[in-house]
Write a structure and sequence with these properties.
By secondary structure, the chain is mostly beta strands. The protein is about 0% helix and about 45% strand. Strands 2-3-4-5 form a four-stranded antiparallel β-sheet, with no helix packed on it.
């Protein structure tokens, strides 16, 4: 298993990233809480509006889409604290964790 912290800032953002050898485009928006939209490297939507919550693999229910890892969130005030608008990327973190073969 490998763990990679996704570099984020406390602002809405869209960026390309390679996770598990696959190119994705992530969009993070604040909608009363942080959410993430995931598109493939060509910008084609895969999943959208996933709330950044703690305690679960955010991609588990989408495994059929071919994700080779999971997304996990840890809050700044503790592992179960939700990210706030101000602390995303500066305390609250999002991790990509590769799956075991």
């Amino acid at each position: 298993m490998a763990v990679y912290e996704i570099p984020l800032t406390p602002a809405p953002q869209t960026f390309g990233i390679t996770l598990g050898g696959i190119d994705y485009r992530l969009t993070l928006l604040y909608r009363g809480g942080w959410t993430v939209d995931i598109a493939d490297g060509g910008g084609n939507p895969m999943v959208g509006g996933i709330p950044l919550v703690t305690g679960a693999d955010l991609l588990e229910q989408f495994r059929h889409l071919g994700f080779q890892g999971g997304l996990f969130v840890q809050g700044a005030a503790g592992p179960d604290a939700l990210p706030t608008f101000e602390d995303l990327g500066f305390g609250s973190t999002v991790y990509w964790v590769t799956m075991e073969p």
